[in-house]
Amino acid sequence: MQSILPRSIPVLGRQGLSGKAMLSTVTHGPGLFGMAMPPGFNAKTAQLATLKSRERGPPSSIDGRLAKTMPPGFKAQVANLDTFKLPERVTGTAGDVKLGQALVGAWRQDGIVQIAMSDKHISLWQDAKLASRRFFRKQHSEKAVCVDSQSYAGYIASGEEVTDGIADYSEIFTITKDLDLSDPRVRAKWPCHGPCPWPDVDMKEPMVRYNESLGAEGEKLLQLAELGLEVSPGSLTRYTRDGWHHTRVLRFPPRNATNGKGKEGRGIGSHTDYGLLVISAQDDVGGLFVRRPDQRERFANWEKSAAGLKEDDDGWIYIPPVEGVHTVILGDMMQYLTNDFLTATPHKVGLNTRERFALAYFHEPSFQAVLKPLDKVSGGMRLGRGKEQEGIHYGTHFTNMFMRNYPDRVTTKRLIAEDRYRLLSTPEMRTLGAAPAS
């Protein structure tokens, strides 16, 4: 697929910055396209958007091309996001500060940012996508053996994952920290710790290379977020030492070729993700929808499940596929750390008329991290003082979420049968803690 955004469009980065997205309301199929100015647009921003639209071509033609990739049966605004370019290194320059502020502003405005891939990232993504296609083309019997009873890594069949009590149609290979059976944490039966059951080296090598590059990108984004939030260096990155990063390699079947276990047209139900950042790439078949931050929609997934949140309501934004970019949304722990100044991004996936491939990398705190809110950042929802002092143990949050999503998986059954869950409260499981950073 050719890029929706022509190369003449300036890539935003350290010099030119704008975090606003242009939106138009679209019903897939016959209908009208109408521009809808997002809240918070001022005259200067609107003028900038108009200039950019002239460079891109008539808004109606852009909107039409974007809308054509939307899965049938959905009504949503179509986002035409600006693309940010990350520096090679974050050193705290004035340009880095401006970029950090723009990223934070875009997350607060739209719940999602779009990052230009480097040439290296493009090559790594192509290799990973090819490996993904090869894996999912295997016979079910070959894929089904790629499961580990101690970690949640490996194959997840279509209909096995559950969101808000309903089976999802996504077919997944999950990559978690790949730990040998001789690792002390595995031998001690820590929950969720174990090997990644790779099917072969042809799958493992390109995925490991791509994940390593995404890990470096995740650290840069956190450093820029620290600058944008005006908090001390390390306020966020202190929690990602030995981060519990993981990846979901995803295939979605065509909407007319499912196994009938889930809800018609639904690939993955509405939910928020668990950690700090989710960096994703998708092929040219659209499917991703997000909800923009809204003060009227309060949720805290670590206290009460946000699964199914507003899934059938209006207000969703369709994120069309754009060649050569990563999209980045926020997770529960970023919301918790910033006291709702930044909020986790509710999102869902619809099934399209063709099969769709995507990859989502989760840049996470350490499994052993105990996170506590940043004192100098607040979106207006301050927690009770006792809760702030107690903090959130990320390993417990991660385990809770995976047990909820995979109640019948062998990993969940073994975790319960061997009473591994109780280990989450032990002191050795909580060795990466910190006082609230300022």
TrEMBL record:
Keywords: Iron, Metal-binding, Oxidoreductase. Coiled coil: none annotated. Residues 243-365 form the Fe2OG dioxygenase domain. It comes from the Eukaryota. InterPro entries: DIOX_N, IPNS-like_FE2OG_OXY, IPNS-like_sf, Iron_ascorbate_oxido_reductase, Oxoglu/Fe-dep_dioxygenase_dom. GO terms for molecular function: metal ion binding; oxidoreductase activity. Gene3D superfamilies: B-lactam Antibiotic, Isopenicillin N Synthase, Chain (2.60.120.330). GO terms for biological process: small molecule biosynthetic process. This is Ethylene-forming enzyme.
